[in-house]
Amino acid sequence: MTGRPFLLALLLLTACDDLSMSQQKRYDVYRRAALWADGAAARTPPDGTVQQGALADEAALADPPPVDAALLQRGRERYEAICTPCHGLTGHGDGMIVARGFPRPPSYHEDRLRAAPARTLVDVITNGYGTMYRYANRVEPRDRWAIAAYIRALQLSQGARVAELPGLAEKIPEERP
């Protein structure tokens, strides 16, 4: 009797083939594939499929998070890491890539971009616009909102006048010769 369970367990273990699931043949993306009629190894997803995580991303993009110091700090970090090569530190469209011949992006300080809703900025980060390619797979949805909030802060900081900010004039020391 003790030999039968052992034999049964041994038979079950030999029937399992973990390697066939983890070490499957694959095609390189741009190689020809005899398996498909068109010969292309790169396949487009079937109609009606949803990318993994797409529903969660869509939900995260539905409503902007509340703007607070932590969101602005995160927006600054992501903006400086991702956006400054083209848009520059102040958002005038004078980044290093532009200095090397890439087309200049519009300044965030143009009237039309100051008037644009934050959702427009998030949509451009997500889907791209003009020569800017999409960053949907490079920037998390919450970070897109953070970048948009930071761009708003840049717009405010670059267009502010000392006279319009209460108490600021008293905090800035006078220049002395």
Task: Write out key terms for the chains shown.
single chain; 177 residues; mainly alpha; 50% helix; elongated; Cyt_c-like_dom_sf; metal ion binding; Cyt_c-like_dom
Instruction: Return the structural class.
Output: mainly alpha
- Whole-angstrom Rg: 27 Å
Please tell me the overall pLDDT: 85
Work out the helicity level: 40-55%
Organism: Methylobacterium frigidaeris
Keywords: Heme, Iron, Metal-binding
GO molecular function, one term: metal ion binding
Protein name: Cytochrome c domain-containing protein
Protein described:
Residues 70-155 form the Cytochrome c domain. This is Cytochrome c domain-containing protein. Keywords: Heme, Iron, Metal-binding. This protein is an all-alpha fold. Helix content is 50%, strand content 0%. The protein is built from nine helices and no strands. Helix 7 crosses helix 8. The radius of gyration is 27 Å and the shape is elongated. The N and C termini lie far apart (103 Å).
